[in-house]
Amino acid sequence: MNFRLFGCGKFKWLSIERFDRELSPKEDSFYRKHREVCFTCMRYEQQGTNAMNLLTAAAIEPEISEDFDEKVLRVLRKPRKRVAFSTLSPVFAGAIVAGLALVATLQLLSQSPIQLWKATPATGAQGADNRYYNKDQSTFPSLVLPRELNR
């Protein structure tokens, strides 16, 4: 029973591996013993074998003409064209964007943090927030600050 509980994963792995290579004697012994004990794994092996048989039956053999080698050599002997700039333009565009991002990052890092903290926000009329374009206070939202709340 212990053999069946812990060997199913190894059995499935070996059932796939046996198509690619020859199993070692130890692996083959485990494979045969587990297949006799576990019905689920035996069905898994049968399905894998059926699938492999279908794949090999459906494999198409290539038809190679007699002058195939000559055609390949003829293509290889042709002088190669130079790579046009238009095919490389996305590469250059990406390099330019990356360079600009690097320059912008270095410029931001070169500023001292003290200068960044000293910046004061722009204010409009009578200390109001500058995000409103007109200076008419009647259009400002009526904000209730925590210190003005009745407690």
Structure notes:
- The protein has helices at 2-20, 25-37, 39-58, 68-77, 85-110, 113-118.
- The protein has a domain at 2-58.
- The two termini are 73 Å apart.
- With 151 residues, it is mainly α.
Describe the protein's topology.
Layout: H1 2-20, H2 25-37, H3 39-58, H4 68-77, H5 85-110, H6 113-118
Q: What's this entry about, in short?
A:
The chain has six helices and no strands.
Properties at a glance:
single chain; flat; mainly alpha; 151 residues
Helix content: 55-70%
Give the class from helix and strand content and strand pairing: mainly alpha
> Which regions have little confidence, pLDDT < 50, spanning 5+ residues?
none
Major beta-sheet overview: none
Question: Ends: how far apart?
Answer: 73 Å
